[in-house]
Amino acid sequence: MKKINVTLLILLSIWGGIQQGYAQLWAGTHNSTYGELRLVEESWPDGKSIVYGDYKADGTIVGEMDNGGRIYRGEFHNGSWKGKFYFDRNFLPSAVSRMTENFNFTGFYGQSSDNRNSTRPQDKWDGNRINNQTVGRIRTAVWSGRWNTNFDPIFLEQIGNEVTGIYGNGNRIEGTYNPSDRKLRGKFTNGGRVGSFEFTITGNDFTGVWGWGANLNEGAWNGTKFSKSNVAMPALATTNTASTNLNGRYRVRIQGIYTAVKSGVMYPNLDIYGYVTVKMFGRSGSGPVTEIKARENRNPNIWSLNNSNSLRINQSSPLKSLQNGPMYAGRHVVDRTIEFDINNQFANDQAKIYISGSIWEKNFAGGGVVYKAIPLDIPLKDLVPGKTYILVNERSSDRIFVTFTIQKL
Fold first, then answer.
1. Residues 34 and 113 in one domain
2. Contact partners, residue 301, CB within 8 Å, separation at least 6
3. pLDDT, tens only, 14-52
4. What is the 8-class DSSP label of residue 8?
5. Are strands 219-220 and 389-395 parallel, antiparallel or unpaired?
6. Mean predicted lDDT score pLDDT of the chain
7. Cα angle at 60 between 32 and 145, to 5 degrees?
8. CA 9 → CA 6, 204, 243, 261, distances in Å?
9. Same domain, yes or no, for 336 and 386?
């Protein structure tokens, strides 16, 4: 690691001046077919014109401008899966009106491609800008943008909770963000060497540590966001490990099963079967991890269907958009619950709920093809009231989502 040099500092000042006077072609708030977009625009030193921001309540969007700012294209994340988009302002605005005018755009989107020029209505994504506000607007894509640090500047793009970028002279940096503790953890390269880092965001600033290999023993790595686009964040609550805070009864309820699989005339229905498993684990002091049985010794497979009793989901209906959630072809409500009691012995920071399972798609021969589940470990201390959690089951680009809530009674 090396400190920022004088030449780079001068270049940053020049770029900063350019940025302050840069015409904001896409920055601001947009209403769109699938929810609100809150966008920030930056001119990066490598010549990129980057636009990033929030998509609805918990999604992210990031991409580049092209054709003089008329085109904006890139990737988005809507809470469960990511896709590609292509937006067109349809005209090149005048230099005078770029900052203030509101405008309409036409666009396209898809999961594996942006589907530009598609004639299918379900591939369209249109919208219009309603204001050009950018300061203090970003709540989800908090890491996207340019950061000035005590080492070289960092340029980051956030898609969901995955963050990638560059710093210094072509060095790479990547990590995963955990909103619960506001930490970005990952790796970086520098001159052929690989190191690790851990950053904690506090709004438009972060504090962190770094080291070579897996160690974090080389000192501080702190930064400030160039564009003050993030909302002010309240101080993180001090973790209280007292058992009385977590004592009580917890209810896990499956809300529904949604699909992002093939649909249409050839595949009007999807028959699925399998199971969803919910367990609770805890540790008393330094003892072993112990499974905490469900109330009334309930079977942990709270949703279970076999091949001969599969669930049929009709996929012929148009795509629907869920509030604060992604879009799916098809929906089937599955109201299943399981409850756990936890006492002083296990009510500490080690207590967690574990969600897993397996889902198969029934094929024409009567057998099935499996969707691999991505298990979830959810610490009780990190539960978010009212949040919809999602268990993702995937096979290639097809996915089946199981949504559920966790409530402390």
1. yes
2. 275, 276, 277, 357
3. 444 434 334 578 999 999 999 999 999 998 877 889 999
4. H
5. unpaired
6. 82
7. 115
8. 5, 20, 51, 49
9. yes
Domain match, 176 and 287 both: no
Evaluate whether 405 touches 249 at the Cβ level (below 8 Å).
no
Residue in this structure with the two tokens 């009385």, named with its chain if needed: 244
The H or E element spanning position 15 is: helix 6-20
Cα-to-chain-centroid distance, residue 285 = 34
Domain count for the chain: 2
Based on the domain organization, do 333 and 187 belong to the same domain? no
Cα(75)–Cα(372) distance, integer angstroms = 24
Closest CA relative to residue 207, chosen from 189, 227, 221: 221
What residues form DSSP beta bridges with 36?
A: none
Does the predicted model carry a pTM greater than 0.85?
no
The answer on 199 and 129 residing in a single domain is yes
Query: What is the pLDDT at residue 361?
Result: 86
Do 294 and 334 sit in the same domain of this protein?
yes
Alpha helices in 167-219 (DSSP H): none
- Residues 78 and 91 sit within 8 Å (Cβ to Cβ): no
Q: For residue range 305-314, list pLDDT tens digits in order.
A: 888 888 877 6
| Same domain flag for 200 and 252 | no
Distance CA 9, CA 12 (A): 5
What tens digit of pLDDT does each residue of 68-98 get? 889 999 999 987 678 999 999 987 665 545 5
Q: What is the pLDDT of residues 178-212, one digit of tens each?
A: 988 899 999 999 988 999 999 999 999 999 999 99
Strand 154-159 to 162-167 pairing: antiparallel
| Neighbouring-strand partners of residue 373 | 393
Residue type, 116: R
Place of tokens 């204001």: 131
Q: Do 26 and 49 lie in a common domain?
A: yes
One-letter amino acid for residue 53 of the chain = G
Distance of CA 327 to the CA centre of its chain: 15
- Domain limits for position 199: 1-236
Q: Give burial (CB, 10 Å; 0-12/13-18/19+) of 7.
A: exposed
